[in-house]
Amino acid sequence: MAQRLVPILRSLLLCLCLGLWLPQSAARAAQLTAALEQFSTALSHAVPAAQVPLQTLQQLDVALLKPESMYPQFQSWSLADLTVLYQLDKRCVNNASLPASVLPFVRALCQQERPSAAWFRANPIYPLGGSSAWHYILRHPDATAALRSSLHVRERPDDLGGVGTLSDNNLDALLGGQQWLLQKGELWHLSRQQWQRYDAQVWQPLANQAGIKLVNAGGRCDLRLGALCANASEGYRDLWRWLFALLTVFAAVGLAWMGWQRRRLRERQRFITQMLTHELRTPIAQLSNVVEHFRRDFDRLPEGAQLNFVALANTLQRMRQMAETSKHYLIAEHQREALETPTQVLLSEWLDHLCADRDGLTYCLAEDMTVGVALYWSSLCLTNLLDNAFRHGVPPVRLTVRKSKTQLLFQVSDGGTMSKNPLLNARRLRWSDSSLGLGLTIVQRVSHRLNGRLTFSPSPTTFTLELPCDAG
User: Fold this and answer.
1) CA of 379: how far to CAs of 72, 100, 343, 386, in Å?
2) What is the per-residue pLDDT for 3?
3) How far apart are the C-alpha atoms of 106 and 88, rounded to whole Å?
4) What contacts 381, CB < 8 A, 6 or more positions away?
5) Residue 53 gets which letter from DSSP?
6) What is the largest CA-CA distance in the chain?
C-alpha cells in the first residue's frame, strides 16, 4: 500500500507546486511591470546629470557611433595598404608611387587647405581606426573647432551628454534601439525623444521606493529590459522563498515517511516469510518420515492407496521446493552481492549434481569446460525451470547447455506444445495457486539481476535461459 502511495504523493506535490507557482508567477510579472512604470514616472520628474536629443544622435553617421570604428578597418582595407598608412602616419610624404587607394587620404590629410565637409562625410572613418577628422586634427590642431562634429563619439567624450563614455556593449545596445543602459552606476534612459543620464544617488532611491532593482543582464532576471534586468527587491521575494522552502521541507518529510513505511512493510513481509519457512520445516520433516515409511511398504499397499501415496509424495516435493524457493527472499542485500560473485566450476560436474535425482531427464552438453558463474543463483534458476518442466510439461524433458562468447545458454524443453507465452503472465500468476507463475517470476527476476534473460518458444515448449559467465 505504501509503495503505491509514493508516486501518487509525488504527483500531488508536483501539482501543488505548479498550482502555486504558475498563478503567482503571472501575478509577480504584472506587479513588476507596474512597479517599473511607477519608477519611470518618478524618474521623468528627476533632474538628469546630462541629456542629448535622440535626433542629434540620428543625424550622425552611424560609423561615428559604432565602437568597431575605433579599430583598424581590416574588412575594407588590405593589410598592405594599412601597413603603408601606418608607416606614413603623422608624416606627410608626397610620393606618387603610393597605392591609389591610400594616396587620397595622404593628400587630404597632409594638405594645408582643409578638405571639404563633403569629403569628411564620404570618408568618416580613417583606415587605421578613428575618424578622418581626428587624424587631420593631429596634423592641424587649429581645425579642432571646425571638425568637431565629424569626430567619433569616443573622440569627444564630453559632448553629446557623455555618450562617448559608454562601453562597446552599451553603444551597440544604443544603436540596437534599447531604452535602458547601465554603466558604472549611471543609468541611461530614453524618454520623450531624449537620452538622459542619471547619477546613482538620483535613480537608486527611486528604484528602491518602487521595489525594483536594475542590473545588467547575465544573472537573475525577473523582467528583461534589453541589456538590463528589472528584479523585484529581495523583501518582495522572501515570502515566496519561505513558502517554497516550507513546501520542500514538507515534501522531504513526506517522502521520508513513505520510505520508512515501505521499509517497515518490507521488514514485516520478510519476517512473515521467515517465520512461515521456519514453521514449514517441521511438518515437512514429519511428512518425509511418513512418506519414507510408506515407501518401504509400497508393494503391500492397496492399488488405491498407492495412487494416493504418489499424490502425497508429489505434494511433499512441492512443499520442499516452496521452502527452498523462499530462501531467495530471505537473503540480505550484501549476501546477494556475495552470491553473485562468479565461482569457477566444471560444467559436467555441476550439471551432474543438478540432474542426479531427476529420472527421465536427458541433458546434452555441447562442450565441457570450466566457467565462472554465479553458482547459487544459476542453480536456483535452472532448478526452477526443470521443476516446471517436470511438473507442468509433457515428457520427455531435455536440457541442452552450450556456451557463446560471454553467455551460458540453458535450453529446457519438453514434449508439450504450449502456444501462449507464459512469461507474459508470470507476474500475474505469481500470487495464484499455480507454481508455474511463481517459478518463472523467480527466474526472470534473478536473470535480470545477473544481466541475463529468459525467453520462451513454442512447439516444443522451450525456455531458454541466458546467463553471463567468465571463461575459465
Assistant:
1) 80, 93, 12, 10
2) 47
3) 8
4) 410, 442, 443, 446, 447, 454, 465, 467
5) E
6) 143
Element (H, E) at 86: helix 79-88
Q: Which residues contact 433 (CB under 8 A, 6 or more apart)?
A: none
Shortest CA distance to 377 belongs to which of 353, 343, 400?
Answer: 343
- Residues 347 and 354: their CA atoms lie apart, in Å, by 11
Q: Which residues pair with 310 in a beta bridge?
A: none
Q: What is the pTM of this model?
A: 0.46
Which phi and psi (to 5°) does residue 206 adopt?
-65, -40
* CA–CA gap between residue 40 and residue 35 (Å, rounded): 9
Which string of b and e fits 417-451 if b means at least 16 CB within 10 Å? ebeeebbeebeebbeeeebbbbbbbbbbbbbeebe
Supply the Cα-derived Rg of the chain in whole angstroms. 45
Burial of 27 (0-12, 13-18, 19+ CB in 10 A): exposed
* pLDDT tens per residue across span 76-93: 878 887 887 777 755 666
- pLDDT tier, 126 (very low <50, low <70, confident <90, very high otherwise): confident
CB 328 within 8 A of CB 376: no
Cell of 116: 571639404
Residue of 196 and 313 predicted with greater confidence? 196
pLDDT in tens, 312-363: 777 777 677 666 666 655 555 555 565 667 888 898 888 888 887 788 888 8
Cα separation, 250 vs 377, whole angstroms: 42
Q: Where are the beta strands (DSSP E) in 206-262?
A: 212-216, 223-225, 228-232
Q: Residue 430: what pLDDT?
A: 41
H or E stretch including 443?
helix 435-449
Q: Is 374 exposed, middle or buried (0-12, 13-18, 19+ CB in 10 A)?
A: buried
CA atoms in the 13 A half-sphere facing the CB of 469: 26
